[in-house]
Amino acid sequence: MIVPCYNEEQVLEPTLRDLVDSFAAGGISLELVCVDNGSSDRTGEILQRLADDGAPVVPTRVEVNIGYGNGVLHAIPICKGKWIGIIPADGQVDAKDVVKLFSVLRSTDGKMLGKVRRRFRLDGLKRKIISVAYNMFVFLLWPNLGSIDVNGSPKILPADAMRTMKLQSKQWFLDPELMVKAQKLGLQVLEMNVFAQMRSGGTSHVRMGTCWEFFSRLVRLRFGGSIRRWYQELEEEQKTETTATKNSCCPTSNNKSTSS
To answer: Model's pTM, two decimal places?
Structure first.
C-alpha cells in the first residue's frame, strides 16, 4: 500500500497502526510504502520511528511537495508486492474495510481493480455538490468507466498493471488517469460501499483550485490524445515482445541439413 503523507502528524500513527493490525488479523502480508511528501511537521520522524520499531513501514521522502500524484509516482518503483494499493493517510476509510476489499481481490484472476465508494460521507453541502457534479462530468465523458466515485480510495490493482499504465499526473488528477487507463487495459472494477469517517485531525488538502484542475484535465484527457498515444505505444511494445518470443521459439537457419 502506497501512503502519501503531507503534514499528517496528527492522524498518521493511528492510521498506519490500524492498517497493520487489520491486515495481520487477516493473515495478509502488508508493506506500507509511506511517502513523506515534503512535510514540514513531524510526519517523517513518525514514519522512521515506526519503521525502527519493526512495523512494515518503508519510509521515503519527496523534498519538495509538488502534488499528491508526485508522491505516489515516487513510491511505485519501491513497491515489492504483486498488488499495489493507494490509500490516503487521513484514516477516513476503516482499515477493516480495506482488508475486506483486498480479500475479495486476491481470490480473483487478477484482472481487476478494487476500490471503495464513499457511500456515506460526512461532508458539507458545498463539498457534496462539487463531488456530485464532478462524478457526473466524468460519467458523461466515460459512461463505461465502472465507478461513480472516481476519486474514492483505497484503490488496489495488480502491480504489473499499475506499472503498465505509466501514470504521469503529479497532482490530484492521478485518480481519474488511473481509472481511465484501467478501463483501456480491460480491468474490471470492483467498487465496495464504505462509510467515510471524519478526519480525527489535520486538514484536507483539496482546494478550489483542485476542482479547476479536475475539470480542465478531464477534458484534456478525453480529447487531447494522451491516452491514445499511451495505448498505441503499449500495443507496439506488445507486438515487439510477441515477435521476439516467436523468433526465440522458432529459430530459422539458412544452412541446409544433410544426411549420409
So the answer is: 0.85
